[in-house]
Write a structure and sequence with these properties.
With about 300 residues, this protein is α/β, with parallel strands linked by helices. Helix content is about 45%, strand content about 20%.
Length: about 300
């Protein structure tokens, strides 16, 4: 494949062929007429062919140069379309948000109508996934995630640090009033949540009982262990057993009376939740609006952790 001429020389040739004079070319590109002439000669030398011929006091393209100019113009036209595409992306009103599934379903989704009321022209594209996207965030506008992985992205901010407590359905509590005490609860059916092998310090039932009992708890009775917190909460609301519930995921069930909190004590998660974004995300006005809204919504939660 033949080596391409310098891009600057090709750009000047494209403008000259479109405008027809060295002076007009210099004005459009904000350079001197001498610089235009120099680049045109450079292009002729690189191609080893004559591009311009004198037509009276003006220079005109040769027939071969006109064909060459037509092809080059198509290339620079594509460059212009590419720039327009980038400009449209920066102004686009669509937000793409990748989020841990339960965090999306149980925490973010109920809050979104408030943001949509502020940003009525925006469209939200919500992706529920455990797999972390590329850390440069080339395909996602925002990523909401948990733990140390949040610090690997180009930009990130802490949203809040969640906490756990035991909860059960009203029907389960009516059958097992002893669930109000740690000792009584330790003998009852429990719903477990498996965080996964990558999370080794996140709280489980045994951690809760160690903070509540002066002695190690007896062998615990897990009726089911779920890989997703949302599924564990659904099992608890169905009366299968008590669950070590995260506040951010269980608050709506508590307010609606589907779950009852069994203890005022709390066990904090070791790491916070993060919102993460890439290098160019905040070029979009709607992205800046979303981030500001999200940080305002979570401010009381961050303040609560610091108390």
């Amino acid at each position: 494949m033949a080596q391409l001429p310098p891009l600057r020389a090709m750009q000047i040739f494209e403008v000259f062929g479109r405008l027809g004079t060295i002076t007009a070319t210099a004005q459009e590109l904000n350079v001197t007429p001498g610089a235009v002439s120099q680049q045109l000669r450079l292009l002729e030398e690189h191609l080893d062919m004559v591009l311009l011929v004198k037509d009276g006091r003006r220079a005109a393209l040769t027939p071969a140069a006109r064909g060459y100019h037509e092809l080059i113009s198509q290339g620079f036209g594509r460059f212009a379309l590419a720039q327009d595409y980038i400009a449209e992306q920066r102004l686009a009103q669509e937000l793409t948000i990748s989020c841990l599934p339960t965090l999306l379903q149980r925490w973010l989704n109920p809050l979104l109508p408030a943001f949509q009321a502020e940003a009525q022209d925006s469209t939200l594209r919500l992706i529920a996934q455990d797999l972390e996207p590329d850390s440069h965030m080339l395909e996602h506008t925002f990523r909401l995630t948990y733990g140390e992985v949040g610090r690997r992205y180009t930009h990130s901010r802490v949203l809040f640090t969640d906490y756990c407590f035991p909860a059960a359905s009203p029907e389960f509590l009516s059958r097992h009033p002893e669930a109000r005490t740690a000792e009584g609860l330790s003998r009852l059916p429990l719903v477990g949540i498996d965080w996964g092998a990558q999370y080794t310090t996140e709280p489980h039932w045994r951690d809760w009982f160690k903070t509540q009992l002066a002695i190690d708890p007896p062998p615990l009775r897990h009726v089911a262990v779920y890989s997703a917190s949302g599924m564990g909460l659904e099992a608890a609301t169905a009366g299968q057993g008590a669950v070590l519930a995260q506040w951010s995921f269980a608050k709506d069930d508590l307010m609606a009376g589907r779950l009852v909190r069994l203890s005022p004590d709390r066990l904090y998660l070791p790491d916070p939740y993060f919102v993460c974004w890439g290098q160019t995300t905040l070029n979009q006005p709607v992205a800046r609006q979303f981030l500001n809204w999200l940080m305002q919504v979570t401010k009381p939660l961050r303040d609560q952790t610091q108390q």
